[in-house]
Write a structure and sequence with these properties.
This protein is α+β, with helices and mostly antiparallel strands and 186 residues long. It folds into two domains: 96 residues; 85 residues, 2-Layer Sandwich (VC0802-like), CATH 3.30.2130.30. Helix content is 37%, strand content 25%. The chain has a four-stranded antiparallel β-sheet. Helix 1 crosses helix 3. The longest helix is centred in the middle third of the chain and has 20 residues. The protein starts with a strand and ends with a helix.
Length: 186
């Protein structure tokens, strides 16, 4: 886990401050158990895109072992959905755990896919969200797919690799297909 991407509604009224506070409150709560989270910040509008909040965890990744990061991931998701159920999350609509966060460069994206390819354990597809960023979609998808040897299934995948271009940074997530249907589509 190298980051978290959260989205919030812009209509009928932009609530960026409130949404950011919801994410910051989760981070502060988890920092009691994981003190290294105290210096982590939520960034509004990554790449200039309203409706998004990016939590960049790359700065702590090297100082924390992988099993602890997996605990943080699990605790963050659990805390988010508990707070949402309890009415303490009103503005954040979705969260997406980013397995990789890299500069927006086709070769950097391919290298990131090489690092996280073991997360794809069956039929899969790529969902690319460019948000108008000037990129050759087919070249990016082709390069990103190179490291993964599992069969591609565009209609009925078991896993979805979500590539979010956020200006000069790109977040990559590997998600089970049923989770995409349940949580990230409206």
């Amino acid at each position: 886990m190298e980051g978290i991407l959260a989205s919030y509604e812009l209509v009928p009224r932009e609530r960026s401050f409130e949404a950011k506070m919801e994410i910051q409150n989760i981070i502060y709560e988890l920092a009691e158990k994981y003190p290294f989270l105290k210096n982590v910040e939520a960034h509004l509008c990554p790449g200039g895109f309203k409706g998004l909040i990016l939590v960049d965890l790359r700065g702590i990744k090297n100082s924390v072992n992988t099993s602890v990061l997996e605990e943080v991931k699990s605790d963050f998701i659990s805390t988010f959905y508990t707070r949402q159920r309890d009415g303490k999350i009103r503005y954040i609509t979705r969260i997406l755990i980013l397995d990789a966060l890299v500069p927006t460069d086709i070769e950097e994206i391919r290298k990131a896919m090489e690092r996280i390819k073991e997360k794809v354990k069956g039929r899969w597809r790529i969902t690319l969200k460019t948000r108008g960023f000037p990129v050759d979609r087919m070249e990016l998808i082709k390069k990103a797919a190179e490291p993964i040897s599992q069969p591609v299934d565009l209609k009925n995948p078991e896993y979805v690799v979500i590539i979010n271009i956020l200006g000069d940074v790109t977040g990559i997530s590997v998600v089970k297909a049923e989770e995409v249907s349940k949580r990230w589509r409206r």
